[in-house]
Write a structure and sequence with these properties.
This protein is an alpha+beta fold and about 725 residues long. The chain folds into four domains: about 1-55 and about 180-315, no CATH class; about 55-165, no CATH class; about 320-430 and about 600-735, no CATH class; about 435-595, no CATH class. The protein has 21 helices and 16 strands. Strands 7, 8, 9, 10, 11, 12, 13, 14, 15 and 16 form a ten-stranded mixed beta sheet that branches. The relative contact order is 0.12. It is found in: Cell membrane. InterPro entries: ABC3_permease_C. This is ABC transporter permease. It comes from Amycolatopsis acididurans.
Length: about 725
C-alpha cells in the first residue's frame, strides 16, 4: 500500500515527479563523488604496489644481489634508476611482474617511455647515463603509472655504487602504503564536497515540501498512524534515493575514467587503480541513500506530532542565540585535533566535518538576525518583504545560501593553503642553483673528478668539475662543525656563501677567530691547521636554510688529513645542464642539485593546483545548483502567498527583487563568516606542514576575498530563477491551491 501510494503520487503530481528526479540526480552526484574520492587512497596504494620492486628490500638481507635505487631527472620528468648486480645464478631470482629478466653486466632494461625519450634526445643528454646496451623493455605491470621513466642497469659487483645494499632479491611483497598527501586531500574532499551534495539533495526534496506536508497532515488527520505517514515518506524518498545511488554507481566508472587523465606525482593512472574492496563500495552505496532517508524521516517531526499546525502552516518556533556556540565548540575540537602531539587523520577529518556541519546550526540564526535588521531599518517594499521572510522562516531562507556558504568556505581554505605552499617553494641547502653534485668518498673523488672533466671536454662543454672534500673543523672550546675543502674563489661560484677572499690560505667560518683543528671525520682526533693559515669571518649566507658553516682552503689542510667524504661539484652555467648531468652520472654516484629539488616542488604544486581547481569548480557548481533549486522551491512552498499578492496587484518584478534580496542578505553575512572560518581552518591544516618544515610560514593574501565576492554573486545569480517560477505561479489558477 505504501509503495502504491508513493507511485500514484509520482504519476499524477508533476511537481512531485520533478522534485523526485532532481533528488535522484543529487543523490547520484553525491554517490559518484564519494566513490571517486574514497577510491583515491586505494589508487595510490595500487600504484605503490606495482613500483615496490624498484626499491631495495631492507628487510631481506642476503647475498643474491646488490641493489641500488636513485632518482634522476630529464626535462622536468623523474627517472627511477635501479642498479643491480647478481651474485648468484640470475635464473634463480624471482622476477616481479613486468620485468622480463635480470640484466647482466653491460645490459639495460628500460620502460617504453624512457626508450622513446632516449631516441628523441642526443646520447650525451640521456642515453649515455646508462652504460650498456638495451636488451629489453618493461611492461606496464612494472610501472607505477603509464609513461613512467625507469631504467634497470646491470653491473658487476665491483662496479656497483657505494650506496648499494645486499638483498635476497626484488621486493615482491604487495603491501604498500597510500600516498598520505592524497589520502588527506581525499578525506577533506569527502567532507567539503559531500556536504554540498547533500544540500543539493535537500534543496531538491524541498521543492514540494509544503504540498507534501499538507498532504501528509491530511492523511494523519484522517486517521493514518505516525508509522504509516513515515513509511509513505520513506517510500517516496526511497525511490529517488535508491535510483540516485544506483545511477551514481553506474556513472562511477565514467568519473574514474576521467580521473585517470588527471596527473598526480608525475604521472596519470590505470583504470584498474581505482578498484576498491567490494565491501567498501557496497557500504558507501547503501549509506548515502540511508542518510537521505534518515533526513527525510527526521523532517516529519512536525507532521507527526502536530498535523493541525502543519496543515495550517503555523509560525515555527523562534531561534535561540545558543546556536552561535556550535562554531567555537567545533572549532576548538578541530584545532585540538591538529595541534596534538600525534595528529590523527580520522580526528582531523571529524573536526573538519563538525566545523562544516556547524554552519547548519549557526546559519539560520545569522539569517534571522539579518532579517531583524532589515525589518527595523529598511523601508522599501522589497526589503520589507525579504526581511519579514527571513524572520518568519530563517531555516528555509538560509537553505538557499547553504551550498554557497560551503563553497565559500572551501574556496577561502584553498586560497589560503595554496599561497602558503607556494611560499615554501624554492631552493635550499648549501649549493647554488646552477650547481650539480655527486656524493662520493675522499679516496675516489680525485679520479672520478678527472673522469667527469674528460667527458665534459669530449662533449664540448665549458663546465668543469671540482673535487670538494668535507672535513670536521674544531675549536679549543670543543665546538665542531663540518667544513668544505675548497678555494675561496671556487666557494663563491659553487656554494651559497659570500666571502671576501684574502691572499694566502685561510679558514672562513662563523666561529670567529681562534686556533682551529681539523680531522677527516667527526670521530677522528683533530690536528692543527698548517702554519700561516688565517682565520676570517664567513659572509652572509645566501638563500633560506643554507647550511654552509665553514670553508677551508686546501693549502691549509695538513698533509696527513684525508677527507672521509667528498663531493664532485659542477656549475652548469654556460653549459647544457642535461649533458653535464649525464657526465656526472657516469661516475656511478647519485647526482643531486637545486634543480632536482625545485622540479619535485613544481610537480607537487602543480598537483595541488589541479586538485584545488577541480574541487572549487565542483563546489561552485553544486552551490549554484542547490541555490537555484532552493529558490525555486521557496516560490513553490509559498504559492498561496505569492498568488494572493499577485491577485492583489503586486508586480512580479517587485516580488522578484524581494526574493533576490532574500538570497543576497543572508548570503552576504554568511559568506563573510564562512570566509573567515575557511582561513582559520586552513591555518590549522597548514600547521601540520609547519611542524615538518620549521622555516615555513602561512601566507594570507587578498585573494581570500574572491570566494566571498563570487559566492555572493552566485547566490544572487541563482536567485534569478525566481522570476520564471513566479510567472509560473501567475499563469496557474489560484483555485488550484
Amino acid at each position: 500500500m505504501v509503495l502504491g501510494l508513493a507511485s500514484r503520487v509520482l504519476r499524477v503530481d508533476r511537481k512531485t515527479r520533478t522534485s523526485t528526479i532532481l533528488t535522484a540526480v543529487g543523490v547520484a552526484v553525491a554517490t559518484g563523488l564519494v566513490l571517486l574520492l574514497v577510491s583515491l587512497p586505494y589508487a595510490t596504494q595500487a600504484r605503490a604496489e606495482r613500483a615496490n620492486w624498484q626499491l631495495p628490500d631492507y628487510d631481506r638481507d642476503g647475498t643474491a644481489m646488490l641493489f641500488s635505487h636513485t632518482e634522476d631527472y630529464t626535462g622536468g620528468d623523474a627517472i627511477d634508476r635501479v642498479d643491480l648486480a647478481s651474485t648468484v645464478d640470475p635464473s634463480t631470482i624471482a622476477l616481479p611482474p613486468g620485468v622480463p629478466r635480470v640484466p647482466g653486466p653491460g645490459e639495460v632494461l628500460v620502460s617504453p617511455g624512457l626508450l622513446e625519450r632516449m631516441h628523441e634526445l642526443p646520447a650525451a643528454q640521456l642515453a649515455d647515463r646508462f652504460p650498456g646496451r638495451v636488451v629489453g623493455t618493461l611492461t606496464d605491470a612494472a610501472l607505477k603509472y603509464p609513461g613512467q621513466l625507469v631504467a634497470v642497469v646491470g653491473h658487476t659487483p665491483d662496479t656497483m655504487p657505494d650506496s648499494a645494499v645486499r638483498t635476497n632479491g626484488f621486493q615482491t611483497a604487495s603491501i604498500a602504503e597510500p600516498d598520505p598527501m592524497l589520502e588527506l586531500l581525499a578525506g577533506v574532499g569527502v567532507v567539503v564536497l559531500l556536504v554540498p551534495s547533500l544540500v543539493l539533495v535537500a534543496s531538491s526534496s524541498r521543492l514540494t515540501a509544503a504540498r507534501r506536508e499538507r498532504r501528509l497532515a491530511a492523511l494523519r488527520l484522517a486517521g493514518a498512524t505516525p508509522g504509516q505517514v513515515t513509511s509513505m515518506v520513506a517510500a517516496e524518498t526511497g525511490i529517488a534515493a535508491v535510483a540516485g545511488a544506483l545511477l551514481g554507481l553506474a556513472v562511477s566508472p565514467v568519473l574514474q575514467a576521467a580521473a585517470t587523465l588527471v596527473p598526480w606525482d608525475g604521472g596519470t593512472w590505470r583504470s584498474s587503480d581505482f578498484d576498491m574492496p567490494a565491501g567498501v563500495e557496497v557500504a558507501l552505496v547503501v549509506a548515502i541513500p540511508a542518510l537521505v532517508l534518515l533526513a527525510a524521516v527526521v523532517g516529519l517531526r512536525r507532521v507527526v506530532s502536530n498535523p493541525v499546525g502543519a496543515a495550517s502552516a503555523h509560525r515555527p518556533k523562534p531561534l535561540r542565540p545558543w546556536r552561535l556556540l556550535a562554531l567555537p565548540i567545533t572549532g576548538a575540537f578541530f584545532f585540538y585535533a591538529v595541534s596534538s602531539d600525534d595528529p590523527s587523520l580520522e580526528m582531523i577529518l571529524l573536526g573538519l566535518l563538525l566545523v562544516v556541519g556547524s554552519a547548519v546550526v549557526v546559519g539560520p540564526w545569522v539569517t534571522y538576525a539579518v532579517g531583524r535588521i532589515f525589518v527595523r531599518f529598511w523601508r522599501r517594499p522589497s526589503g520589507l518583504l525579504a526581511g519579514r521572510r527571513l524572520l518568519d522562516d530563517p531555516r528555509g531562507a538560509y537553505r538557499a545560501s547553504a551550498g554557497v556558504v560551503l563553497a565559500v568556505f572551501v574556496g577561502s581554505m584553498a586560497l589560503t593553503l595554496m599561497p602558503s605552499f607556494e611560499g615554501m617553494a624554492g631552493g635550499s641547502g648549501s649549493l647554488r642553483d646552477s650547481v650539480l653534485a655527486a656524493y662520493t668518498s675522499g679516496e675516489k673523488v680525485g679520479p672520478l673528478t678527472e673522469q667527469t672533466n674528460e667527458r665534459l671536454a669530449k662533449t664540448g662543454q665549458q663546465a668543469r668539475a671540482v673535487a670538494v672534500g668535507e672535513v670536521t673543523l674544531g675549536t679549543v672550546n670543543g665546538s665542531r662543525i663540518t667544513a668544505y675543502v675548497v678555494t675561496c674563489a671556487q666557494a663563491g661560484q659553487l656554494l651559497k656563501v659570500n666571502v671576501t677572499c684574502a691572499a694566502g690560505p685561510a679558514v672562513y667560518s662563523f666561529l670567529g677567530a681562534g686556533d682551529y683543528t681539523v680531522s677527516g671525520g667527526y670521530d677522528e682526533p683533530g690536528v692543527p691547521l698548517n702554519p700561516g693559515t688565517a682565520s676570517r669571518p664567513m659572509g652572509t649566507v645566501n638563500g633560506r636554510s643554507a647550511s654552509v658553516s665553514a670553508i677551508i682552503d686546501p693549502a691549509a689542510i695538513p698533509a696527513g688529513v684525508q677527507p672521509r667524504d667528498a663531493e664532485i661539484l659542477v656549475s652548469t652555467a654556460g653549459s647544457d645542464p642535461e649533458t653535464v648531468r649525464t657526465a656526472l652520472l657516469a661516475t656511478g654516484e647519485t647526482v643531486y642539485g637545486q634543480d632536482t629539488h625545485v622540479v619535485r616542488q613544481h610537480i607537487m604544486l602543480a598537483d595541488l593546483r589541479r586538485v584545488t581547481v577541480i574541487g572549487l569548480v565542483a563546489a561552485a557548481v553544486l552551490a549554484g545548483c542547490s541555490a537555484a533549486i532552493a529558490t525555486a522551491g521557496s516560490v513553490m512552498d509559498r504559492r498561496r502567498t505569492f498568488g494572493a499578492l499577485m491577485a492583489a496587484g503586486t508586480p512580479v518584478r517587485l516580488l522578484s527583487r524581494a526574493l533576490r534580496a532574500e538570497a543576497a542578505l543572508p548570503a552576504l553575512a554568511a559568506t563573510v563568516g564562512a570566509g573567515v572560518v575557511g582561513v582559520a581552518v586552513a591555518l590549522g591544516l597548514f600547521s601540520l606542514v609547519q611542524d615538518a618544515h620549521s622555516g615555513a610560514s602561512a601566507l594570507v593574501t587578498p585573494w581570500v576575498l574572491a570566494p566571498v565576492v563570487l559566492g555572493l554573486g552566485v547566490a544572487v545569480l541563482a536567485a534569478s530563477v525566481c522570476t520564471p517560477a513566479l510567472n509560473g505561479v501567475r499563469a496557474e489558477p489560484l483555485a488550484d491551491e
